[in-house]
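Example 3.2
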Amino acid sequence: MLKSMTGFASREFELGQRSLSLIVKSCNNRYLDISVALPQTCAILEPRIQKLINERLHRGKVEFTLRVKDRSKIACISADVAAATAAYAALVKVGKACGIEGRPTLELVAAQEGVLVTEAEFDAEELWAGVEGNILGLLDEFEKSRAIEGEATAADLAKELKRFELGFAIVQVNIAEIEASLSRQLKAKMIEYATQGYDEGRFLQEIAVQLMRYSINEEVQRLKAHIKAFRSISEEEAPAKRMDFLCQEMNREVNTIGSKNILIPVAHAVIEMKDSLENLREQLRNLE
């Protein structure tokens, strides 16, 4: 099943006197990269949340956020001395630059972001008992959003693969003409030297060698196998990386056909096939 690496889900709920907010979002990434943002007192929960997400995804950059507001207890206020010192120094510098005399007041320093940190105290283990089920539900919603985007991308992939196959059909129709045209060119070249005399057996042997060298039958057969494999891989779990590798192989065969080709219709078909493969690879970068 094709799933997008881009997804989003959010959920808000109440646990007693606590208001909780969950957010998970993801974007494209070569590997799985999970970032979890929690209140400081909930840091112990991070490995558990990482595990739940890791069980669902294979690739992508994932950001998970948990916010908790506890109305049942008095908030714990702590001071970040380093932040306060930096804020004071910055305000003094601004004052001097603006020609303002005097020193920053305590109220002004305390008002700067990060100087005073307010957090509600609560038991993280107790919180986990009520939040785990909601995280699982959130991830279910997240998976649905990725699946919906994956379906849209799958439709685009099918469209581009059909375009590739139309170009491939033109190539196959012209196989005999490519060989016949090459044979005519070889014969015309040999006739130029007929006045000097030539060995007919040697001539026929040369034609056979050139036809073997410029035949595209092997490339055509490999492309047929690649197309079949591409369709079957799309049914696997997390198939995008393998499908991308397969596109690289298909592109190699198309390039070889282009280098051997001597017909204008086939040249145009090769261009279409290469463009469709590029679009396929672009779409695959969005999938898991």
